[in-house]
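Exercise (ungraded).
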Amino acid sequence: MSRVLLTGASGFVGAPTLDALVRAGHEVHALAREPGRPLDGVSWHVADLLDPDAGSLLRELLDDLAPELLVHLAWYAEHGKFWAATENVRWVEASLALLRAFTAAGGRRAVMVGTCAEYDWSRSEPFDEQAPLRPATLYGAAKHGLHTVAAALCHQVGVEFAWGRLFFLYGPFEAPGRFVSSIVLPLLRDEPATMTAGTQRRDFLHTVDAGGALAALAASDVVGPVNIASGEVLELRDLAQRIAARIDTGQLRLGARPMPEGEPPALLADARRLHEEVGWRPSLDIDEGLDQAIDWWRMRLAAESE
Amino acid sequence: MSRVLLTGASGFVGAPTLDALVRAGHEVHALAREPGRPLDGVSWHVADLLDPDAGSLLRELLDDLAPELLVHLAWYAEHGKFWAATENVRWVEASLALLRAFTAAGGRRAVMVGTCAEYDWSRSEPFDEQAPLRPATLYGAAKHGLHTVAAALCHQVGVEFAWGRLFFLYGPFEAPGRFVSSIVLPLLRDEPATMTAGTQRRDFLHTVDAGGALAALAASDVVGPVNIASGEVLELRDLAQRIAARIDTGQLRLGARPMPEGEPPALLADARRLHEEVGWRPSLDIDEGLDQAIDWWRMRLAAESE
């Protein structure tokens, strides 16, 4: 049980990570731009890490709290924009400043998150953590560059550093344009859900499990990059058909959209480090995960229509 | 002829780069913590890029000047400390903030500098720019991480980006503990100059030529990493003997120090990109360069003793 500073604690992955850290009994200090829901074991701290004045506030907070663990999830995540946005560069700067402040305040272990977009997407075999890196986007390059510098800083000052590489995620609060939302929402609205032929193979993980995996990684002593993924192979058409089978309305139209040029046929994870070294496995299989996500969307739409 | 913003303009490499940019007819805006010597064609701007308040000052300056070229050389360079200092991380942050401000102000082309310490030093063949990167130090990792993010940012926003990898340098104002100084200074003081057996092979370049190469790189349209090096192979003992042959006093003691554990036998540069694509070659051979450097040290010591 440790004192943890968690950033991005209100986010898509941050909120379930907060839950998992609390369940594990940690004293969690949650940093976000707005305070989140009150929760036993959680203290909220309001700060914008991109604010030029954040530096001195942050150093004060860290000197005051002296957290043992840092779990840094805050990043620019606007769907459809995050791949190419210069905000990625601002987040590299802010993340390094945060890590310097954390290590200077005596922190013991830091966990940050990267992305499967760091890997060379021309390869189709599952990526293990030593697979070649060749980010093709500013987002992927920013994460890769951050990893390079952050790991070296921690190595230099004797702080443990782990880097969780997220693959494809779904779950409550998913942005409407992301894959699972893009199928669930039209169907629930009794509209056609259009997609490609869906032969692409991907690794999907429910955010509750992504949060659980990150909390487990934080509590472990595993260092270096760790894929945060299910280790399962799923075709997008199979995923879409499982969704359609759960929703009576609307219609799934496989093949209604062309396959985008250069679409990678497979983006898969070798999750053995997570399973064997961290000792963590997903709690939800894809059917349980989809049940939960679709339930959340039903409630959300019902609430909107009231 | 372009309007150039040059950072680190008073430094070991920055000062000769400033000279070379002026000689090439550019309008140079030199940024440094203290104003340097007045020079036709140069406007000095005083700023500390690590100052938390630098961001807004910098954006004002860049919006005001709208430079076409950025040549960013400022970095932490304290001899003996720079390999492991956390200042390297602060310079990654500051360099990215500078680059964002430069691109936002309409800049056309940016040149930054990396290091041969980005390469995998377990290899003995000359490094070309595609050689595997495996920085073993925080300095090398910080430069590598900066390169990754800066190149991706420039690619995204349509700004040309070149990355000059510096190898071993010597010249006026060299810090006393660096290799050439560590031989020249004791000899000029009529003391023994001690060193290893000196079988290590290195690529050495005079700072006047490093500055010339960086100015040529800035004026070219070559993008990506470019080794800033002579392309020549020199054993340290040969270099030391050439120095000793120029100084009547003191005594060179080859082999008086043990070879450090893990000392790389060869750190050499393939300089073909610089020679053929940038079209630049060194102006000084090693004998001319040493003559010049030793003359400078003689004058410096004479001035000190007055």
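Further reading is listed at the end of the chapter. For now, observe: Chain A has a mean pLDDT of 96. The first helix of chain A runs from residue 14 to 23.
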